[in-house]
Each structure stands twice: as C-alpha cells, then as structure tokens.
Amino acid sequence: MTSSSISQFGSNPVRSLTSRAPAEPDERLQALKRLIGKVTPQIGFNDVCKTSIPDLTFYRMDKLATPTYCIYEPCVAIILQGAKEITFGEQACEFAQGSFFVTSVDIPTLARVTAASEQTPYLSIVLKLDLSMLNEVIQTQAPLKQEATPEARGFASGMASSEMLDAFARLSALTGQPLEAGLMSDLIKREICVRLLLSCAGHWLRSVTRDGYRDKGIVRAIEWLKLHYDEPLHVAQLAQLSGMASSTLHHNFRKLTGTSPVQYQKSLRLQAARSLMLTERVDVNTAALRVGYESVAQFSREYARRFGAPPSRDIKYARENGGRLD
C-alpha cells in the first residue's frame, strides 16, 4: 500500500497489509521514537504510558505476547517501531512502522504485536479522537477532490505523512509542560484532524463523521450498548432506538463494527469483567453478575473462548505480567 492508498475493514474477509517501512525512515518518525523511548519506563514486558496531554497515550512492548481482545475507541494510532496485527470482524491487517489507523466508533478487535524485542521494542502513539472537534474542522473545510472509497466503514488506514508525524511530535513534546500544553494542545489536535482529512483516509473520515450521515442510528445503538451492556438486550428495542428494521440494524451494525449487536454486547461484558477482576480484584462470580451474566458457568465458558484461559488463570497470568488490560 502506498501513501495514496487506503485500507478499510468490513467489505471482504481477506488479509491486507500496509506497505513496508521506507528504507530511510522520516526524521520526524525517528524523533517520535526517541521521545517515546525516553518517557516510557524500561519495565520490560509491556507499558502503557498515559501522558499529561489529555487523550494522548504512548505504548511500548519489549517482547511478543498472545493476541488480546480489546475495544478501540474513536482514535488515530501511529506505529512508530515494530508491527501490529489487528483483526476486525473476519479481516486482518498488519500495520508496519510509519503506518496509521483511524477508527470512527468503538470497535471490538483482536490485536497482537508481531514485531518486538528488547533491542527494538514495539512503539506506538495513540490519540483519542474528539469527534466534535473533527466535525467542526470538516464544516470549515472546502470540499476536496478525492478518489471514491469502498463502502466499508469503521476503520481505515494508510501511511502517515511527514506533516502528520510532525504534528504528533509537537503534541508529544508538550508532555511535562503544563503551561504550554494548556495553550497549544488543542491547536495541535485540530491540526492533526486537518492532517487526517488531507490524508488517504480523509474522504472516508468525512463520510462517517459529518452531521446526518446514514450510520447515526448505528452510533446511537452503540452508545446505548456501552451504557447498558449489563442489561438484557432486546434487538427489536435497539432497532427502534436506531430507527431501523431489525434486519437492517443487524446488517449495518455488522458492516460498521464487524460484529452483531449481541456479540458486541458480549465483548463489552467480557472486557468489563476482566477489568473488574484486575483493577478491583473482585472474584469470578461477582464479576460475572455485575456485568449482566445470570450463569457463572456460561460466563466462564465465554471468557475462556475470548481470552484463551479460564478467568482465574487469565487474571493470575495478567497480574504476573504487569496487569495489562489491552
């Protein structure tokens, strides 16, 4: 994939790859790698570094691990070093150094780092998207001529431009500078929105964030599920909320998220239960009941299928390896 191409998930169940990293990485990419290498603690297995800049996170991994299920919020992420494979629905995409991906809704995924070592750790930077800010930028932007993009939505990717990398480098450099960050971080975030709209993902991004786009009903359904995942799910009521027939809801929901409403709720429940057991140290029975399961046995079966081990064993392993949730 070249810098002018775009990868989108949800249309064909085939594996797609980003282009390989250039022979001479952009100097801005190198600067970002050096910065994140300095600020992430050298703890070995896995480190998630929440920065002082709201919604900006650095990731570092020094060795490979088993695939993990996670839910990506609307965000833009850039792979600075190493590689990562993300499976969305039935389609997998591997992101190499210098590539980015952007999500428009909360999407359940299976992710695994495919290139990392102590000498060359996996490094990435993630910025949660302010969709209101993005839409404001879209409203002020003159229409651009873009190639038509596929129907698939929810997730898009490409190679980060030098200008996008530069904006991320300047935003990252504000960490630890509260005065400058308070004055400048939102300005740089708006610039990042502009860079995304000018990128190969721009046409897709405008189509899924502009006011009145046809998937707003699905977004309403997603927001309801996020708030009420521990309650019984009645698809007919969810369809009414979204303003669609049940069959249309199911089709459009799967197209946008790669899964059905029922499976989406299950992902939210299992992820919430895992978080409860790790962060609040509740037992398996309590976690299952708190996220909406009536049967602890069913919860344990579905948990093992999702995370590869029964709850107690998985949590024990996670605690021994830094308590990672991603």
Automatic annotation (TrEMBL):
GO annotation, biological process: positive regulation of metabolic process
Residue intervals of the HTH araC/xylS-type domain: 219-317
The entry's keywords: DNA-binding, Transcription, Transcription regulation
Molecular-function annotations in GO: DNA-binding transcription factor activity; sequence-specific DNA binding
Polar residues bias (residue ranges): 1-19
TM annotation in the entry: none
SMART domains documented for this protein: HTH_ARAC
Taxonomy, superkingdom: Bacteria
Region (Disordered): 1-23
Record Pfam families: AraC_N (PF06719), HTH_18 (PF12833)
Alphabetized InterPro entries for the sequence: Homeodomain-like_sf, HTH_AraC, HTH_AraC-typ_CS, Tscrpt_reg_HTH_AraC_N
Name this protein carries in UniProt: AraC family transcriptional regulator
Source organism: Pseudomonas syringae pv. actinidiae ICMP 18807
